[in-house]
Amino acid sequence: xxxxxxxxxxxxxxxxxxxxxxxxxxxxxxxxxxxxxxxxxxxxxxxxxxxxxxxxxxxxxxxxxxxxxxxxxxxxxxxxxxxxxxxxxxxxxxxxxxxxxxxxxx
Length: 106
Description:
Arylsulfatase, C-terminal domain, globular, single chain
């Protein structure tokens, strides 16, 4: 079992945490989390991981609270899900700025 960290800056104020575990050439767990830097603080805004044994996406408000969990319901191997979500995050990160959760008011 080997943990790998492929985290990268997509821009100076956008960071992609990219950590996964590989066993016998297959990804057995992963975390992809986009963070943006605003007002002197790094804020997670969206995360996809394999916790609970199933891939899902968590949407996170500026206060750090998860306000939506979307189960992907995909039976593909984690390698495929990881590669697809990683590419998607890298191509759409500009749209992933912190959003207000439905229950939070400004």
